[in-house]
Amino acid sequence: MSEISLLERLQEALIAVRDWHGDAASTLYAVIDPILADPFPDAAGEAREVVVLPADKFAPGDCPYLLTLGEFGRDPRAEATIALSMQETLAQEGGDRAGRSVCGWLVLPSGIPVEQAVRAYARQSQLVVGGERRTFRFWDPRTLDLARDVLTPTQLNAILGPAASWSWLSRQRKLETVWIDPREHDALYTVAVRTNEEQQRLLSQLPEINLVMDSLTVAAFDTTPIKAIEVGRRLVEADVQWRLHDPRDQVSYAICCMIYGAPFTANAPIRQQLIHGLETGTPAMPAVLGMLDTLEPQLVALESGAVS
């Protein structure tokens, strides 16, 4: 599909999301993260509403904000947000590690002031993980791609809560949307989200999980069936079972597990190298990666079932 036709389909899908609500007074906002660069520096005043994050971690100009959008075809910024989001997604497919400045779009019902929404988002961005308060960058589309594997629908709705819907462009260049029942708003977003121990571990691993997923995307590997929880387990396995304490080695291990599946650690030479690293206390992954050129045909054949 050409970039132009993809752009048109995304615009049609986003218009359908906005129109689905049937509330003529509702407002469409783009979610903008300016931490690397602000794509709309001239938007000010009523056009933007800032989600104020802890001042000890975020300068005022680095906080995300909601950008008011008008009608498609009348407000150039509306089309610009879609074009830029697609451009940034394609750049990440090509190996660009930069973040996404256009993170998504939300529809805010007419009865909820935008000031109330940004206060709720600021509160929900602060999660306690392992006894430590951390900023959960839930607005990042790469995080949202994984969040539905980690959080329950109720928890995700509570985080995105004030909006009636929240949409973003996924790694697969598909417009994803979470719908929130307006009748649940008061019950959802007025309290902090509580997470269990496994969810906290996965949330703390999201940077590494995203790195695994980004690397697989750059390698043109289909990440659609891969679940965040599975990648997280492989990262823990690398750390605990094989004592690969360097995050780079953990990410490399998880990538190999996602590509080759069970045959990766079942392969005798690779397993011997991992055991050798365990016994000697030396990192095994550099040597393992050096073996892949020779072993890859066998691993691929085993994973595809061509060898039994």
From the structure above, extract its key features:
six-stranded antiparallel β-sheet, elongated, alpha+beta, 2 domains, 8 strands, two-stranded antiparallel ribbon, 308 residues, 13 helices
List the helices and strands and how they pair.
Elements: H1 3-20, E1 27-32, E2 48-50, E3 65-69, H2 76-93, E4 102-108, H3 114-124, E5 126-129, E6 132-135, H4 141-150, H5 153-160, E7 165-169, E8 175-179, H6 185-189, H7 197-204, H8 206-218, H9 228-240, H10 247-260, H11 263-266, H12 268-280, H13 285-304
Antiparallel strand pairs: 1-3, 1-4, 2-3, 4-7, 5-6, 7-8
Helix pairs in contact: 1-2, 8-9, 8-10, 9-10, 10-13, 12-13
Description:
There is one protein chain. With 308 residues, the chain is of the alpha+beta class. The protein has two domains: 3-194, no CATH class; 205-304, no CATH class. It is 50% helix and 13% strand. It is built from 13 helices and eight strands. The chain has helices spanning 3-20, 76-93, 114-124, 141-150, 153-160, 185-189, 197-204, 206-218, 228-240, 247-260, 263-266, 268-280, 285-304; strands spanning 27-32, 48-50, 65-69, 102-108, 126-129, 132-135, 165-169, 175-179. The strands form two sheets. Strands 2-3-1-4-7-8 form a six-stranded antiparallel sheet, sandwiched between helices. Strands 5-6 form a two-stranded antiparallel sheet. A hairpin with a 2-residue loop joins β5 (126-129) and β6. α1 (3-20) packs across α2 (76-93). The chain is elongated and about 65 Å long.
